[in-house]
Design brief:
By secondary structure, this protein is an alpha+beta fold. It contains three helices and six strands; from the N terminus they run E-H-E-E-E-E-H-E-H. Helices cover about 35% and strands about 20% of the residues.
Amino acid sequence: MGYTHYWRSQKRFTDNEWNTLREKVKKVLDAYGELVTPPLVDSEVIRFNGIGDDGHETFLLTKQFQDFEFCKTRQKPYDLVVCLVLLAVDEFTPGVLHISSDGVPEDWQCSLDEFNKLFNKKDMPSWIES
């Protein structure tokens, strides 16, 4: 059984967009980094997984154009961090990625609540099926 998040590039991240996203991801990791393996957040990639049995597939987002990528989390604890990063992409670098998910609004509500605590913004994204 899987629970997966998907994304396609609409365009390449600009340097400014990527740097903005890196700052936001670092804030997410400051709050929830205990849920993931030591992350890599650099000038080209954002990469992490869950820890031990709480991990599944590695989340990998690159600055370069990505035709189609996904991360199957099986809703393990690190799914929160994956969701927060995808919400940050949607909020702070709109139009770069087309994001979709197996999740429904109820699955995303906790992530959205945590995103609002961190950044004080975000409505339920339109790409989450109701």
